[in-house]
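Translate sequence into structure tokens.
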Amino acid sequence: MINKQTKIAVQCRSIVKTYGSGASEVFALRGVDLDLYEGELLMLVGPSGCGKTTFISIVTALLKADSGVCEVLGQDINALTLEQKVLFRRQSIGFVFQAFNLLPALTAQENVAVPLLIQGRNRKAAMHEAKAVLDSVGLGERIGALPSELSGGQQQRVAIARALVHRPKLIVCDEPTSSLDHKSGQMVMQLLRHIADQSNTTLLVVTHDNRIYHFGDRMAHMDDGRIIKTEMIQEKKETSE
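Result follows.
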């Protein structure tokens, strides 16, 4: 629920990003203004090539904007050094991808433990925490399964558990349901909706899947490198469905 007291988690103003130079210069972002709030699930929609991937890459400190200001969880992203950006992502941001990006030789539990191991946690503690998060997404009985032994929906839930395990305040999801059937996609979105509601985590979901729009709080429409409209989403399904 967004109200006047809700804190801003992400604030972007006049974000510009170009690729190339001279006659080959291409504007990917043409002055993007967008706020995301704590505990909000925001859908970012628009045609292919409109700048969505560039925008989330800037929000997650993978790309640097040419101009403008992007503050994420109180940090001016453009002002961070490369090392600081890496540390910031490890500590504060979770990622969920269309292709799951699970390591095929690792079990579900080991995949989920990876972000904690990268942070320097000892293996026993990381594996214990990974099991707890897999329990929370309904996969406690599949902790020893390899990705190839899981359905698409189960793999995506493992990917969500991996994004959650270090308790980030921002989770960015890039087409999280486009590789899933309708039922699996709905289950994944119910889980993401629950995360936003229960942990006050901000979720930014890039999607072309109009079957999941109703799970969001707001929708931001992007076209030709700009946010052209934001709107509240009135109809949301209960997470218990």
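Note: The longest strand covers residues 8-19.
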